[in-house]
């Protein structure tokens, strides 16, 4: 059957693009809020209408880390049915790329400690790191309202001790197992 034979919303997909950044024996992970708690995952996010997965990858790293990203190549695309965490009526299609950052130490400290970035929900380009947020809180108190922000924490994890169970998302665990973790 052709696509035109189906109603437009009969097969809703949730298309995501993620970057697997490695540097000096470490991999970059993000801890993002989802349904009331933080999930540990690879950096990336949802593909917006009108952009391709590689465009999404570039946008997500620019918005969240203020860095351009070098795409080193495709790693993995889901090849089986995965229900979306947004609801069982959606199918997740996740695409993973190996990426390099021009300034890895600016993404998060290389000692494994956390770097938090706050991104306004209504304006992703107006990101704040811990230092810029602290300097601004007195001048613009409304910005300290947690309901206005997406808080994302980044850290580098050592590959030598990395286990797939660190990741909360099932496909991230699969990617970690296949491409990063030692048996």
Overall description:
By secondary structure, the chain is an alpha+beta fold. The chain has a single domain (11-178), classed as Alpha-Beta Complex (Nucleoside Triphosphate Pyrophosphohydrolase). Helices cover 19% and strands 38% of the residues. The chain is built from four helices and ten strands; from the N terminus they run ββββαβββαββαβα. It has helices spanning 53-65, 104-107, 130-136, 170-179; strands at 13-23, 26-34, 37-41, 44-46, 70-77, 83-84, 87-100, 115-120, 128-129, 149-158. Strands 1, 2, 3, 4, 5, 6, 7, 8, 9 and 10 form a ten-stranded mixed β-sheet that branches. Strand 6 and strand 7 form a beta hairpin. The N and C termini lie far apart (43 Å).
Question: What's the SSE blueprint?
Answer:
Layout lengths: L12 E11 L2 E9 L2 E5 L2 E3 L6 H13 L4 E8 L5 E2 L2 E14 L3 H4 L7 E6 L7 E2 H7 L12 E10 L11 H10 L4
* CATH fold-type name: Nucleoside Triphosphate Pyrophosphohydrolase
**Main pleated sheet:** 10 strands, mixed
The proportion of residues forming helix, as a percent range, comes to: 10-25%
Spans of 5+ residues with little confidence (pLDDT < 50)? 125-144
| Total number of strands | 10
Going by CATH, the homologous superfamily would be Nucleoside Triphosphate Pyrophosphohydrolase
Distance between the termini: 43 Å
CATH architecture: Alpha-Beta Complex
Q: Tally the helices.
A: 4
What's the mean pLDDT score?
81
Instruction: Provide the β-strand percentage band.
Output: 35-45%
The secondary-structure class comes to alpha+beta
CATH top level?
Alpha Beta
Order of helices and strands: EEEEHEEEHEEHEH
